[in-house]
Amino acid sequence: MSDVIHLLPDSVANQIAAGEVIQRPASVIKELVENSIDAGADSIQVRVKDAGRTSIQVIDNGSGMSPTDARLSFERHATSKIKSAADIYSLFTMGFRGEALASIAAVAQVELKTRRTEDELGTSILINGSVIEKQETVAAPVGTSFTVKNLFFNVPARRKFLKSNDVELRHIISEFERIVLVHPDISFSLFHNDVELYQLPGSSLKQRILHTYKSAFNSFSQQLLTIHAETSLGTIDGFVGDPQAARKRNAIQYLFVNGRYMRHPYFHKAILSCYEQLIPSGEMPNYFLYFTVDPSTIDVNVHPTKTEIKFENEAILWKIVTAAVKEALGKSTAIPSIDFDQEDAPEIPILTTANDIKAPKIDYNPSYNPFKGSGGYGASYGTSKATTGWETLYSRFESPQLVPPCEQTTEDAYVTNPFETPPVVPEQREQFFSSSDMTQSASFLPFKGHYLMTSVKSGLMIIDQRRAHIRILFDVYMSSLHNKQGFSQRLLFPEQMDLSVAEGVVLSEIWDDLQFIGFDIVELGENSYSINAVPSGIEGMNPVALIHEMIHSAIHHGDDLKESVEERIALSLARSTAIPYGQALSSEEVQKLIDDLFRSQSPGYTPDGKKILHILSNEDIDTFFKL
User: pTM here?
Assistant: First the structure.
């Protein structure tokens, strides 16, 4: 029997490594930009075409590479960052495993141009799927330029499973923001199809945050509270958001350690614990926290993307984080304090030794008896109007209407307690319900502006009126989307809307669907838009907040945006325009709500699977009253 174990060719091994390191175009940009940062560049330009499918170019003015280094950089596990295993635990640089360039070259067509300051000419290398096609000396500026074309051209299965251009661009923007927020001293720019998305000059950390999110947060500067804590374990710097700036969806939350983005649910929970009782339930604060610790106390090689990081002293750092955040909130008067300078405060005289302090004198009548005389309680005790007719109250106990609970009818059940006023019983309570003739035979009793109740053949039906309205509106909006016949209502004064770059990308993807619903939106430039018309039936609502809600709902539901974008838009719009809990409905409104609900093909559940109605069976009701 022949041997069956053999070594993989380098090209195959590189493609396997690319499966872990290079997941999508954003992964390529992350690896190349991090290499540029490690090369000491202070200006980095990123250019992508078709969300990275066609071309990705990263240009920097860093130290460049010699011809030998340029060639070796594409070999597996070739790196300038480490020389021994011990170096892995003392890293402050970004990429270090030496698989990135080899993995990129294995699944794309790569062109590298680089030159060092001391060299007169640079080096150019062309690689096609791990195969070096050309290496020559060329004229080039100082620094390095990587051009990656046709990503996954030789791995059709991987290219097939890339998402739409808008989704991939959102991932690129997200990766780009993670990098620029940790290197404010470096100038960054990002272009997509030759359109500038970001132009960020070198600045302070706070200015970098404001420049990155200037379109979405006009007053963000006042919302950032400074964090600083320095201990023997390391330092924590950054900013947390004012509680008033908390957001229900898509809050901006970043954690970094030693210049590296990380996900850490443990520290995230520590920050949220500081906002308890300060923000409403369901809202999330913004924060940007930067940890600087001894590299030997963390493990950054837990995951191929190096975003999951293990800390040696997590429990102690939890306390440091909570103390630093609470201190920042306290200094900003986010935590309530006593104010002694209010205008209406009582005037307290100043105590001096010249003033004599005397006890207050209390007058009382020692002969007063509360049970005697015309002015006491005893005079009116037996003739109070509140107790007039008490005989009638107790006579109901002797009424022949009182029957055992197991034999009571619907009306008799309310007679057993003489202290409770019987509710109004609908005249047609004895008639049974069926979905076909409910509107003619059933009457609905509102309960606390939340539920509608009626008697049906099988028992007692309870309907959640808000969820019922959501189902009705969802069907209406879905019909408008499918038929592309949304009706618009022009606004008297157009509303201006400012979005972040990432939000603008999502808006462009759902633009046509918003038009079909009835929105009329005009782009003004620089991620600003004008809302000129809204769908009929939602007049009076805030259209800017409504579109923000739909955009964040689309972002929140992940990558496959196109597959169910119509459903999410319709559901988000239905939730925003449905009647709120506690709103009383007239009998005509109730009747129309019920009529429309039971015309739906799914009257029992909302589009997101929540129950609309419940029937309490006759058997369950009888069980409540059996002895």
Answer: 0.64
